Automatic annotation (TrEMBL):
InterPro entries: DgoD-like, Enolase-like_C_sf, Enolase_C-like
Recorded GO MF terms: catalytic activity
Source lineage: Bacteria, Pseudomonadati, Pseudomonadota, Alphaproteobacteria, Hyphomicrobiales
Species name: Rhodoplanes roseus
Domain of life of the organism encoding this protein: Bacteria
Gene3D superfamilies the UniProt entry points to: Enolase-like C-terminal domain (3.20.20.120)
Domain Enolase C-terminal: 11-201
Protein name (database record): MR-MLE family protein
PANTHER family named among the record's database cross-references: D-GALACTONATE DEHYDRATASE, D-GALACTONATE DEHYDRATASE-RELATED
Length: 219
């Protein structure tokens, strides 16, 4: 945890590293600073204010993801977009963040927020508050394919998360189709369902459970 108030040497270290990224990547590089809630309200504001001249694309999860009041305090104190949401659940969880405009970019995780249908509802609700969407993708090729389907049908999509796990050979080998970006862009799968299937080898390693309805409920 990096909690405040922070010493100047800590703030300077963060600034120097981010400035080096800006210099190496050039003026058009979009830099996302991910905190993963390792900072608190005070330290997030201190670091954010120090970095404002570096034009951060967005400032991700700068405090506890379920504390909308702290998120709002950070939002009001800084001149950069705030992103969060990979650990916020259902429309009702997102509601206070959208209503108080404490988040500019939501990041729902399809495996945690309530599934595909709930995620689509969250994204549509966010659109009414002028809030952009970047689906949180930090899992298998299945979650990636599902995210691409959602992102293709919402008007407030901003970027797709291409996590380092998407390049892991073991992960890529678990499914039939290996979707990777070409020149920074993905082609949305147009196969049945979400456009992805586990390989026979992957299925063979899994426990198989068959769910059926009781006969008395069957029509």
């Amino acid at each position: 945890k990096i909690t405040g108030p922070l010493e100047n040497r800590v703030i300077r270290t963060v600034y120097d590293r981010m400035a080096a990224m800006r210099e190496a990547g050039g003026p058009d590089l979009d830099i996302i600073l991910e905190h993963h809630a390792n900072t608190d309200t005070i330290s997030a504001i201190q670091i954010g204010r120090a970095l404002e001249d570096l034009r951060i694309f967005y400032y991700e999860e700068p405090c506890h993801p379920l504390n909308s009041r702290s998120m709002l305090e950070i939002k009001k104190a800084l001149k950069m977009p705030i992103a969060a949401g990979e650990r916020i659940y259902t429309r009702w969880g997102y509601r206070p963040f959208l209503e108080d405009r404490s988040i500019d970019v939501i990041q729902p995780d399809l495996c945690l927020c309530g599934g595909l249908t709930e995620a689509k509802k969250i994204c549509d609700m966010a659109n009414t508050y002028d809030c952009a969407v970047q689906i949180h993708v930090c899992g298998s090729p299945i979650s990636k394919a599902a995210a691409l389907q959602i992102e293709a049908v919402i008007p407030n999509f901003i970027i797709h998360e291409h996590h380092q796990r998407a390049l892991n050979p073991e992960s890529r080998a678990t499914c039939l189709y290996d979707y990777q970006p070409v020149n920074g862009k993905y082609k949305v799968p147009d196969l049945p369902g979400i456009g992805q299937e586990p390989t026979p080898e992957t299925i063979a390693k899994c426990n198989t459970v068959t769910v059926t309805r009781s006969k008395k409920y069957m029509s």
